[in-house]
Write a structure and sequence with these properties.
One of its GO terms (molecular function) is methionine-tRNA ligase activity. Belongs to the class-I aminoacyl-tRNA synthetase family. 49% of the residues lie in helices and 16% in strands. The protein has 18 helices and 16 strands. Helix 16 (401-422) packs antiparallel against helix 17 and helix 17 (430-454) packs antiparallel against helix 18 (459-471). With 482 residues, the chain is α/β, with parallel strands linked by helices. It has a domain at 343-471: Isoleucyl-tRNA Synthetase, Domain 1, CATH 1.10.730. The longest helix is centred in the last third of the chain and has 29 residues, at 336-364. It binds zinc ion.
Length: 482
């Protein structure tokens, strides 16, 4: 049986989940469900990154213990499972024992490449990363537009420079395939600019005791990224379950946002090379979700809360919008106006209307799908369905979620035209009754295909369509928004 291990990145838990992470985890969910439908053995991992300095700061602001803050927010991330109907198999928190043990084991496995050095640098807590002066924009972090802190400490470093040539070859030859190509180019140009050794610990004092202690030196805490990246191996038994580890590692796919590309495509493979572990196969990089044209931020008050969206519109319209409207590898914009337009045009009118029409006619003609006697050989129809399946599969192999859905909606339009042309409600004589029934059987057949294709995207709707084709009991899928 073919194995398919995929992960999202682990979000920070200093605040509640916003719709940007919802996009990532829904993309991952579609891939997981799709590969399960292909009959593969799937392991879908997500979780939370809890050892960050940001959490220490957020907790201090609220005047509560850090543990309390991370417990509260990690719970909210877990609750996305129900809200967004996610099918992940495991949820790892980086404060769990299995993770701490694994992160420390990985450190020891890299020991030959770790050394201590006095260091002075500019650290952005938002990114949890040191920046070179030349990487800042007007002295500010390019990601957070904030001034990084000047940090002067004696810390542990990892010999990243040693892996420069090896990494270059790995990326060039797609041994780790980076999608899209533009992100692969970005990684190569970062590698070509010269890799410097990276600082992988901080003083326990600066981290206020929060985080995972460096093995053999508890005065130091693991750098958040060194610890967080190891979750991908820790969740599959790196520290304590060799059998499970052998089964699942290396991961087939990491799904990440564009802001954390170098951690996944440069640092992570280098650490794995150092520890003599296999490398993940694919990294898929999505863009950012903006809100009415601007980056979502607390200060702008434009954060889209996925729980509120689901409460207002339901789970599947939220999944649909993010997958259909947002280009998978570019930035995409959320507005309520666009959301409602998509909902009414594609879900209420397009899909919902077709299903309602076909089921109502089937009911009238007593043409239930289950009672179908012969397979109608309408060649034009069959060709159209086959073509759609082909386009759909190709799009999904390339992570083009929007195009996969686009091809399903083309098939919906094809059916609408077919109905208008055949007018199966007109009854002239007994012969036309038989012909009309055949038209309905064709349409029911295409609806079952549409439902199959929708399974990874809109699992609940797919189930409802399949039920309706069997019972011909017509219930609106997506009532129109006023
Ligand atoms: Zn930053």
């Amino acid at each position: 049986m073919k194995k398919f291990y995929l992960s999202t990145a682990l979000p920070y838990v200093n605040e509640s989940p916003h719709a940007g992470f919802a996009l990532e985890i829904i993309q991952a969910d579609v891939m997981a469900r799709y590969h399960r439908l292909l009959g593969e053995d799937v392991f879908f991992l997500t979780g939370t990154d809890e050892n960050s300095l940001k959490n220490v700061q957020a907790a201090r602001k609220e005047g509560i213990p850090v543990k309390k803050l991370v417990d509260r927010n990690a719970k909210k991330f877990y609750e996305l499972k129900k809200a967004l109907n996610l099918s992940f198999d495991d949820f790892i928190r980086t404060t769990e024992k299995r993770h701490i043990k694994g992160a420390q084991k990985l450190w020891l496995a890299c020991k030959k490449d770790i050394f201590k050095k006095k260091y002075k640098g500019l650290y952005c807590v938002g990114c949890e990363e040191f920046y070179k002066e030349s990487e800042l924009v007007n002295g500010l972090c390019p990601e957070h537009k904030t001034r990084p802190d000047l940090v002067e400490e004696e810390n542990y470093f990892f010999k990243l420079s040693k892996y420069q040539n090896q990494l270059k070859k790995i990326i060039e030859k797609d041994e780790i395939k980076i999608i899209p190509q533009s992100r692969k180019n970005e990684v190569l140009s970062f590698i070509n600019s010269g890799l410097e050794d990276i600082c992988i610990s901080r003083s326990a004092e600066r981290g206020r005791g929060w985080g995972i202690p460096v093995p053999e030196d508890p005065s130091q805490i693991l750098w958040t990224w060194y610890d967080a990246l190891s979750n991908y191996i820790n969740a599959v038994g790196y520290s304590d379950n060799p059998k499970q580890f052998k089964k699942w590692w290396p991961a087939y796919l990491h799904i990440i946002g564009k802001g954390i590309l170098r951690f996944h495509a440069v640092y992570w493979p280098a650490i794995l090379l150092s520890a003599e572990l296999s490398l993940p196969k694919t990294i898929f990089v999505h863009g950012y979700l903006t809100s009415a044209g601007q980056k979502m931020s607390k200060s702008l008050g434009n954060i889209i809360d996925p729980f509120e969206l689901v409460k207002k519109y339901g789970t599947e319209p939220v999944r649909y919008f993010l997958l259909r409207e947002i280009p998978p590898t570019e930035d995409g914009d959320f507005t309520y106006e666009k959301f409602e337009q998509r909902y009414n045009a594609d879900l209420a009118s397009g899909l919902g209307n077709l299903v309602a029409r076909v089921i109502a006619m089937a009911e009238k003609l007593k043409a239930q799908n289950a009672k179908r006697k012969t397979t109608t050989q309408n060649l034009k129809f069959k060709k159209e369905i086959d073509k759609t399946w082909e386009e759909y599969k190709k799009a999904l192999e390339e992570f083009k979620f929007n195009e996969a859905l686009g091809s399903i909606w083309k098939l919906i339009s094809f059916c609408d035209c077919y109905i208008d042309k055949e007018r199966p409600w007109e009854l002239k004589n007994q012969e036309s009754r038989i012909k009309n029934q055949e038209v309905i059987y064709n349409l029911l057949f295409v609806l079952t295909n549409i439902a199959e294709m929708l399974k990874p995207f809109l699992p609940e709707t797919a189930g409802r369509i399949l039920r309706q084709t069997r019972t011909t009991i017509n219930k609106p899928l997506f009532p129109r928004l006023k």
